[in-house]
Amino acid sequence: MTDLRMSRAAVAAMVDHTLLKPEATAADVAATVAEARELGVYAVCLSPSMLPVDAAGLVTATVAGFPSGKHDAAVKAYEARLAAERGATEVDMVIDVGAAVVGDWDAVRADIDAVRAALDDAVGLKVIIESAALSDDAVIAACRAAEQAGAQFVKTSTGFHPAGGASTHAVALMSRTVGGRLGVKASGGIRTTTAALAMIGAGATRLGLSGTRAVLQGLPDQVR
């Protein structure tokens, strides 16, 4: 539990309203964008194959190397660049989690470097480290690799890994590691208002949510 108190609008302004289901249709995407506008969130995060979309008034985010991360770095870089050409202004890339597990940080860094180099400076890069599958030491090293490669955010999870999604422990560890120099995105399994506030309290500066409405409904219009 957390005693953090925030208004609905304040939390909404931290949310990437997300639709990454493989069965998503164009109609689903349109409905997600409309709901994102209604809820007043920061961004909408969609699969790259669903771009471009009319998301005026919202940041358009997408993913690269998703969800496994087991793509050649050149493929991730091309996917990210193509998505940016189709309107994405933020890209959430998945590292090679296996390389992180065995401590091959040169490979992890090269992977991130390739994607960062493929994007204009104006396009934000979030690096998904799949924190539930890593030791604390590996989480720290992955965050350092992301920072060294010029990422703007580190992100906990894809939400598709069997090891699990975001945890307050991982978020706090990531936040301490990047020390405010990068943002921290908590994503994966955040389905309640209490869970969302706990992630923010642990240091998350962005939330990846698919059930955004349910999370926001538990918050007040104003904090007194």
Automatic annotation (TrEMBL):
User: According to the lineage, what is the superkingdom?
Assistant: Bacteria
The lineage is: Bacteria, Bacillati, Actinomycetota, Actinomycetes, Mycobacteriales
Q: What is this protein called?
A: Deoxyribose-phosphate aldolase
Q: Which InterPro entries match?
A: Aldolase_TIM, DeoC, DeoC/FbaB/LacD_aldolase, DeoC_typeI
Q: What class of enzyme is it?
A: lyase
Q: Which GO terms describe its molecular function?
A: deoxyribose-phosphate aldolase activity
**The protein's role, per its UniProt record:** Catalyzes a reversible aldol reaction between acetaldehyde and D-glyceraldehyde 3-phosphate to generate 2-deoxy-D-ribose 5-phosphate.
Q: Which residues does the Swiss-Prot or TrEMBL record annotate as the active site?
A: 92, 155, 185
Mind telling me which residue stretches traverse the membrane in this protein? none
Reaction(s) catalysed (UniProt annotation) = 2-deoxy-D-ribose 5-phosphate = D-glyceraldehyde 3-phosphate + acetaldehyde
Q: Which organism is it from?
A: Skermania pinensis
Q: Which NCBIfam families match?
A: deoC (TIGR00126)
Its principal location?
cytoplasm
Give the record's family classification: Belongs to the DeoC/FbaB aldolase family. DeoC type 1 subfamily.
Pathway field of the UniProt record reads: Carbohydrate degradation; 2-deoxy-D-ribose 1-phosphate degradation; D-glyceraldehyde 3-phosphate and acetaldehyde from 2-deoxy-alpha-D-ribose 1-phosphate: step 2/2
Q: Which keywords does this Swiss-Prot/TrEMBL entry list?
A: Cytoplasm, Lyase, Schiff base
Which Pfam family, just one, is annotated for this protein?
A: DeoC
